[in-house]
């Protein structure tokens, strides 16, 4: 028998807005290169800049963020939010059997990856507001790709001669 268990803290990620709200004239305000961030506001239930719920279906507490006023940069820092904990368990079982004395042996193997079937998300930028300041409906929803595959089990038979 053998196994490998991996547990890591979740990776950091940032929120961004999709418009040049600060009037900087920068070309990097939309798409994957967006650099402007929202304003963090200490609304009820918001105790730190890491405003996440822990619920994977609605992960970001959107009430903790506001669209910055025209001509102002948001005050939310870079990489202040964290993804959930990464957990992965791989497990294997091997059984050796003599088939024909020392001349022929068989090994039966069962290998299982991500046995607990945890969804481990990849940390990435999330756009929270559109150009008009409305919260996007997809904010806080799981994004592909995942950091690991779903549960996989493989069975094998190996002959040694």
Please tell me about this protein's structure.
- The protein has one domain.
- The mean pLDDT is 83.
- It has strands at residues 2-8, 12-13, 15-17, 39-40, 65-66, 81-82, 86-100, 104-113, 126-129, 152-160.
- The strands form four sheets. It has a four-stranded antiparallel sheet, with no helix packed on it.
- It is mainly beta.
Secondary structure layout:
Layout: E1 2-8, E2 12-13, E3 15-17, E4 39-40, E5 65-66, E6 81-82, E7 86-100, E8 104-113, E9 126-129, E10 152-160
Parallel strand pairs: 3-9
Antiparallel strand pairs: 1-7, 2-6, 4-5, 7-8, 8-10
Defining traits:
161 residues; mainly beta; 4-stranded antiparallel β-sheet; 10 strands; rod-shaped
Content-based structural category: mainly beta
Strand and helix order:
EEEEEEEEEE
Strand order of the largest sheet: 1-7-8-10
The portion of residues forming beta strands comes to 25-35%
Form type:
rod-shaped
Q: Please tell me the overall pLDDT.
A: 83
Radius of gyration: 24 Å
Largest sheet: 4 strands, antiparallel
Q: What's the β-strand tally?
A: 10
Indicate how many domains the architecture comprises: 1
Instruction: Tell me the distance between the termini.
Output: 23 Å
Helix content: under 10%
Count the DSSP helices: 0
The parts where pLDDT drops under 50 for at least 5 residues are none
């Amino acid at each position: 028998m053998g196994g490998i268990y991996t547990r890591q803290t979740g990776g950091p990620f940032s929120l961004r807005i999709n418009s040049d709200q600060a009037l900087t004239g920068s070309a990097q305000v939309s798409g994957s290169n967006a650099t402007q961030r929202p304003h963090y506001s200490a609304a009820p239930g918001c105790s730190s800049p890491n405003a996440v719920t822990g619920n994977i279906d609605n992960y970001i507490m959107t009430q903790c963020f506001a669209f910055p006023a025209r001509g102002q940069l948001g005050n939310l820092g870079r990489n202040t939010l964290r993804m959930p904990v990464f957990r992965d368990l791989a497990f294997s079982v091997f059984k050796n059997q003599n088939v024909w004395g020392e001349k022929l042996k068989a090994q039966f193997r069962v290998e299982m990856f991500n046995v607990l079937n945890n969804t481990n998300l990849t940390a990435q930028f999330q756009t929270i507001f559109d150009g008009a300041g409305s919260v996007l409906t997809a904010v806080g929803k799981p994004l592909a790709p995942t950091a690991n595959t779903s549960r996989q089990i493989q069975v094998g038979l190996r002959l040694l001669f």
